[in-house]
C-alpha cells in the first residue's frame, strides 16, 4: 500500500485510436479471455472481477466488451444497487457471499462491497465507526477468498469532472439513455471532492498483493475498454500456462464407434470412409 497518487492527479489517456485498430485489438483480447475462461472451466478455477468507479465512467461498457464471446453459462454479471428489504439489517458483505462463483465460474460485480467506504460513507448510510472498520473487514474478506483459491481482479474506472458532465448531458439529451441518470447522480456529482478523498483512502488501504487495484483512466472510452480488458486478462493469466485440452480416450473411442473419427485423420476420416467429398 501507499503507492497511489491522489485520484484527481492521475493522468488521463486521451490519445486517439482508429476504429479498425480498436476492433482488432479488442477481438484479440476477447479471444484471450475466452482461452482463460476455458482454462478455469477445465480446472474448476473461480474468478471475482470487481468494477467500481464514478457514474458515467464506462463500467457498463467495459463489462459488455469483456463478456462478449465468453461462454455465457459460467459467467455472471451482478449489478449492485441499494440493498433489498431482505438484505437490509444483515452484515453488508452478506449479499456478496450469496453471489460468489461456483467452481469454473466467473462473477463480475458492477459496483461492489466497496460501497461501504464510498457511498455509505459519504451519504451517512452507516456510522463513521462502521465504515472505518470496513477496510479491515474487506481486506479479510478478500484474503479469505484468495486463500480459498479465488482469483480477484479490481478495477476502478476514473473519469474527469469535465468528461463526466459531457456524458451526463448526453444521457439527458438522448431519450434512450435517460434511464441511466437519476437524482442521486446529481447529489453524487456535487460531492465529487468528498468522493475523491474516499477513493484515495480506499486505494491506499485496500490495495494488497492478493487483491491489487488497477485504476483505468476512462475519458477516452475505446482506450479505457482496451486497458480494462487487458488488465483483466493480465491478472487472470498470472502464473497460468494455457495448453490445449487433452482428448478423453473414452470420448475418442465413442466418436470412432459412431463416426469412424480418429484424432489422426480428423474430419476427413469419415468422408474417406464413406467415399464422400466436401
Features:
single chain; 278 residues; Rossmann fold; 2 domains; 11 helices; 12% strand
SSE blueprint and pairings:
Blueprint: H1 19-43, E1 46-53, H2 59-67, E2 75-79, H3 94-97, E3 106-110, H4 119-123, H5 128-147, E4 150-158, H6 161-173, H7 183-190, H8 192-206, E5 213-217, H9 221-237, H10 249-259, H11 268-274
Task: Explain how this protein is built.
With 278 residues, the protein is of the alpha/beta class. The chain has 2 domains: 7-237, Rossmann fold (3-Layer(aba) Sandwich); 246-278, no CATH class. It has 11 helices and 5 strands, in the order αβαβαβααβαααβααα. It has a 5-stranded parallel beta sheet, sandwiched between helices. It is globular, with a radius of gyration of 23 Å. The termini are far apart. The relative contact order is 0.18. Residues 269-278 have low confidence and may be disordered.
Amino acid at each position: 500500500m501507499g503507492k497511489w497518487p491522489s485520484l484527481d492527479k492521475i493522468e488521463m489517456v486521451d490519445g486517439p485510436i482508429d476504429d479498425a485498430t480498436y476492433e482488432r485489438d479488442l477481438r484479440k483480447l476477447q479471444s484471450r479471455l475466452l482461452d482463460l475462461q476455458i482454462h478455469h472451466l477445465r480446472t474448476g478455477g473461480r474468478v471475482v472481477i470487481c468494477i467500481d468507479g464514478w457514474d458515467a465512467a464506462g463500467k457498463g461498457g467495459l463489462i459488455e466488451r469483456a463478456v462478449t464471446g465468453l461462454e455465457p453459462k459460467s459467467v455472471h454479471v451482478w449489478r449492485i444497487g441499494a440493498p433489498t428489504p431482505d438484505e437490509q439489517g444483515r452484515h453488508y458483505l452478506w449479499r456478496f457471499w450469496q453471489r460468489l462463483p461456483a467452481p469454473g465460474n466467473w462473477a463480475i460485480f458492477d459496483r461492489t462491497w466497496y460501497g461501504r467506504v464510498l457511498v455509505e460513507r459519504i451519504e451517512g448510510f452507516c456510522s463513521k465507526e462502521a465504515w472505518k472498520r470496513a477496510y479491515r473487514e474487506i481486506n479479510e474478506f478478500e484474503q479469505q477468498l484468495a486463500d480459498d483459491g479465488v482469483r480477484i481482479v479490481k478495477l476502478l474506472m476514473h473519469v474527469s469532472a469535465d468528461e463526466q458532465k459531457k456524458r451526463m448531458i448526453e444521457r439527458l439529451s438522448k431519450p434512450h439513455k435517460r434511464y441511466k441518470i437519476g437524482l442521486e447522480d446529481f447529489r453524487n456529482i456535487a460531492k465529487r471532492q468528498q468522493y475523491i478523498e474516499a477513493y484515495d483512502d480506499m486505494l491506499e488501504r485496500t490495495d494488497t498483493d492478493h487483491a491489487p487495484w488497477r485504476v483505468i483512466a476512462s475519458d477516452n472510452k475505446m482506450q479505457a475498454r482496451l486497458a480494462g480488458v487487458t488488465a483483466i486478462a493480465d491478472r487472470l493469466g498470472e502464473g497460468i500456462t494455457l495448453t490445449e485440452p487433452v482428448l478423453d480416450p473414452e470420448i475418442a473411442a465413442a466418436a470412432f464407434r459412431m463416426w469412424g473419427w480418429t484424432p489422426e485423420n480428423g474430419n476427413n476420416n469419415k468422408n474417406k470412409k464413406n467415399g464422400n467429398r466436401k
